[in-house]
Design goal:
This protein is an alpha/beta fold. It is about 65% helix and about 5% strand. The radius of gyration is 46 Å and the shape is rod-shaped.
Length: about 625
């Protein structure tokens, strides 16, 4: 297979793939109004793309375009070489479009309603590769059978491949015709012709400068159509410039150029639609970003609020967990001196209560004290059970409905401003959040006690290492050893030779007080460290629970919709890059003009209205 055929097949495959991507993009579900509008534009464009694909091998359809009296009909007659359509200089003479084709051309494949045309079939060689249509004027309001000229023109233009734009010295600056050309030029090649060469001055330089702001203008022809027709009928040599124009239409627009024109038209239509949609996205995306920002802000605010409330609830049982932690550390240290002090501190309440037994004078007092101790033990067990129940209840603890309603009302305003439609109501959001809370409670708190045991075990291992133990045991024993050495030396040495030097009772009282202060200080420093660690773990536990309950966001449907919007935008950008790449692979025509896709059209959305009208 020749290389040119392989390249042709690859190009067609790439175009087909691009059209399929556009089809998939237009069918994606979204509640964003802007995206829905753009999808509607693409869906209206797709049938035109299919028509262009089908008509790749058909003759090119060339339509005249220009203001009243610019000699369009005369130009068509001259190009054909015979009188096919009525011409005039002032009032519009073409109200019913005239279609001129070769008798062998299958007109049914063009998709035209032939009943709306005056069909002229001429067995001319120059008509084998093209079909000429003499169109009505876009700048008049002549009506016939309920339609004006502009409406008829708008029905014809989408089915054309090339526009033969004729103008004169008097008409080339017509704003109305220029506006219509700007809309009609998308997806079509252009040939620019200044007519009435026998009457008007050559204004091509000024016209080119005006056109080049929005169009690629390789050539502008300056012809006298009336004289050219007369020369042909009289079998005289025709003007070289008109001959060049006639040669382009009859010879140069052969099969190879025909395929290139249609591919270029198809890709230009796609790029124009994608650029239009991308522009609408960029105009509307700030509102989507504001909604996303507010959703994140609400998520952080509500998560923080929930975390604080959960933390407050968890901290109620902190004292119980501190005692369990202290017991775990003292048990791991065994019977060391400082560990004994920790046990003494941890059981200080029970110790004081037990000491009251020594004050009992009879059996009744012993029984009363025993009953009080039993009640205290039962109270401690009740507190432990209450702590476990509180931890289990914490799973359903969170934000009340009023807080959620307040957030919903605020978000509704951003949602409406962003153009998101068909969003779930507040009741659905509350029910969903409650349902998720039930799942979180079941998954996160099915082993509530195990989680607390894990936290206590983790802190116990962290704070009972050999270095921590060495520091506190050494500091504690420093005073004890000092006091014992001082007392032993005084008893065995100093007082052995002089009994008056024996330490008085005041020394022992002072030493005892200092011992209590020193021990209390060490125990306080150690338990303070444990409290800080336990509080940090409780904070992490509350944050973990709050994040688990809001892991999918407070309003996941809105967050998903925002992600879908960005996905649609990224797809547009990617497809736009593919179209640009394909267009660069098709060499620019040296004989045909075209619309500058990357240039501003001067009217925001003008291309959209043109696409919509088709």
């Amino acid at each position: 297979m020749p290389t040119s055929e392989i390249a042709q097949i690859e190009m067609l495959a790439a175009v087909d793939g691009l059209i399929q991507q556009l089809t998939n993009w237009s069918q994606k579900s979204t509640g964003w109004r802007t995206a829905q509008q753009c999808q509607a534009v693409i869906q209206q464009l797709l049938p035109r793309l299919d028509m262009l694909r089908v008509r790749l091998e058909s003759p090119l359809v060339i339509a005249t375009f220009g203001g009243t009296g610019t000699g369009k009909s005369s130009l068509v007659n001259a190009l054909v070489g015979s009188y096919c359509t009525t011409s005039g200089r002032q009032r519009p003479t073409t109200t019913q479009p005239v279609l001129i084709a070769h008798p062998d051309t299958d007109l049914d494949r063009l998709g035209l309603d032939l009943s709306q045309f005056q069909v002229e079939q001429k067995p001319l060689d120059q008509l084998r590769n093209i079909i000429l249509i003499d169109c009505p004027d876009p700048d008049t309001s002549e009506e016939s059978e309920g339609e004006n000229n502009l409406t008829r023109l708008q029905h014809i233009i989408p089915l054309c491949d090339i526009l033969l734009y004729a103008s004169t010295q008097q008409k080339y600056r017509s704003a109305r015709v220029s506006d219509e050309l700007r809309e009609a030029a998308v997806g079509r090649r252009l040939i620019f012709v200044q007519t009435h060469a026998g009457l008007d001055e050559d204004i091509r330089d000024d016209w080119r400068e005006q056109l080049s702001q929005q169009f690629e203008v390789p050539e502008i022809y300056f012809v006298d159509s009336v004289r050219a027709l007369e020369d042909q009928l009289a079998d005289r040599p025709i003007d070289p410039e008109f001959a060049s124009l006639q040669n382009i239409l009859s010879t140069q627009l052969g099969k190879s150029e025909r395929l290139q024109v249609r591919r270029a038209n198809l890709l230009e239509l796609i790029q124009h639609a994608i650029d239009h949609c991308a522009q609408k996205f960029e105009q509307s995306l700030p509102e989507i970003r504001e909604l996303e920002s507010f959703l994140k802000q609400q998520h952080v605010t509500l998560t923080t609020q929930m975390s604080q409330e959960l933390r407050s609830e968890l901290l109620i049982s902190r004292n119980l967990w501190e005692r369990r932690l202290l017991s775990s550390i003292s048990d791991s240290w065994g019977a060391s001196p400082f560990a004994m002090m920790l046990r003494l501190y941890n059981g200080l309440g029970n110790l004081i209560a037990s000491a009251s037994l020594f004050r009992a004078r009879n059996s009744a007092q012993v029984a009363l004290i025993g009953a009080l101790q039993g009640a205290r033990w039962l109270g401690d067990r009740h507190k432990e059970q209450a702590a476990e129940d509180r931890l289990k209840r914490i799973g359903s603890f969170g934000l009340d409905d009023n807080t959620l309603r307040e957030s919903q009302l605020l978000i509704d305003g951003y949602t409406q401003a962003a153009g998101l439609e068909n969003q779930p109501q507040l009741t659905d959001s509350l029910e969903r959040l409650q349902t998720e809370a039930a799942h979180v409670e079941e998954e996160f708190l099915s082993d509530a006690g195990t989680k607390i045991d894990g936290i206590i075990g983790k802190l116990a291992r962290k704070n009972s290492g050999w270095f921590t133990r060495l520091v506190y045991e050494s500091l504690f024993l420093t005073f004890v050893i000092y006091a014992l050495v001082r007392i032993g030396r005084n008893f065995f040495m100093d007082s052995f030779f002089n009994e008056s030097r024996i330490l008085p009772i005041d020394f022992y009282v002072t030493a005892g007080v200092i011992f209590l202060i020193w021990t209390g200080f060490l125990v306080m420093m150690f338990t303070r460290k444990l409290k800080r660690g336990l509080e940090q773990e409780i904070n992490q536990l509350s944050d973990q629970l709050a994040q688990a309950k809001l892991s999918h966001g407070l309003f996941p449907h809105l967050e998903q919709e925002c992600r879908q919007v960005h996905s649609l935008q990224h797809s547009l950008v990617r497809m736009g890059g593919e179209v640009h790449h394909l267009r660069t692979e098709i060499a620019s025509s040296r004989i045909l003009g075209s619309w500058k896709v990357n240039e501003p059209t001067g009217k925001a959305g003008s291309g959209a209205s043109h696409l919509s009208s088709q």
